[in-house]
Amino acid sequence: MAHIVLRVRLVSGDQLDVTYEEADVADDEVVERAVAALASDAGVLRCRHGDRLLVLFARGVAGLELAPRGAVL
User: Checking DSSP bridges between strand 15-22 and strand 2-10, what pairing results, if any?
Assistant: First the structure.
């Protein structure tokens, strides 16, 4: 299972770090799928923030940040 950590900047100005996972996919493909999902108005991502399940709606996301080391959880 490949996973990435994304720093998400919300439309409200807040930011949070979330983990996004997909089974049987390479790390590079996970990034592309996450960006593609949030690029559409109806897109959603099921993520984790700590031990909580979080659903990100594309309309509420202003930006994503992904660094080689990942965001700090």
Answer: antiparallel
- In one letter, which amino acid is 57? F
pLDDT band at 69 (very low <50, low <70, confident <90, very high): low
Could you tell me if residue 31 is inside a domain?
A: yes
| Residue-number span of the structural domain to which 53 is assigned | 2-65
Q: What is the pLDDT of residues 38-47, one digit of tens each?
A: 888 788 999 9
Full strand arrangement of the beta sheet holding 2-10: 52-57, 44-49, 15-22, 2-10, 61-65
* 3-class DSSP state of 42: coil
Please give the sequence-ordered ranges of beta strands (E in DSSP) within 1-73, or none if there are none. 2-10, 15-22, 44-49, 52-57, 61-65
